[in-house]
Amino acid sequence: MFARLTKTTLETDYDLSFRWIGVNDVYSKLLSVQAQPVAKDREEFEGYYRKVLDFVLASANKVIVVTPALVGEDVTSTSNKKIKELSVLIESISSEHENVSCLNLQSVFEGTLIKSIVRITSVRK
Predict the structure, then answer these.
(1) CA 97, CA 4: separation in Å to the nearest integer?
(2) Is 44 helix (H, G, I), strand (E, B) or coil?
(3) How far apart are CA 41 and CA 60, in angstroms?
(4) Residue 36 burial (CB count, 10 A)
(5) Which residues, including other chains, have CB under 8 Å from residue 38's CB and lie 6 or more apart?
């Protein structure tokens, strides 16, 4: 995302901007498929993420960062655990800025998925 974003010229003074790190941005690393350059570890991801956020903050009054969602339906999978670690990091970084809010999409999807499973299980009993 950093490489794509820095090739772009942003107009200044956006009222609101969203930064959504999609599953594809991180999942390609988890699958060892490199469609685009990805961070090699958590520290490099954090550095790139901070740069992306600073880049966007220079052109926006308010930023909402959105975490990756889930990969599949197994919330306890290795991939989802790694994505959860990144989501916690994104939330932490966003909390350092007054004009940045975080939408933890993984938590939203996880909560909805668990409620659906519970509902389906109780209907089958």
Answers:
(1) 23
(2) helix
(3) 28
(4) 10
(5) 25, 26, 28, 29
Segment 45-60 shows an average pLDDT of 90
3-class SS of residue 94: helix
Query: How many alpha carbons lie under 13 Å from residue 73 in its C-beta half-sphere?
Result: 6
One-letter identity of residue 86: L
Residue holding tokens 């991801």?
45
Tokens 């919330």, located at residue: 75
Tokens of 77: 């999978």
Structure-block tokens of residue 112: 């909805």
Q: How confident is the model over 54-80, as pLDDT tens digits?
A: 989 988 999 999 998 888 788 888 888
pTM of the model: 0.76
Locate 76 and state its tokens.
Answer: 């306890």
Strand partners, 64: 18, 101
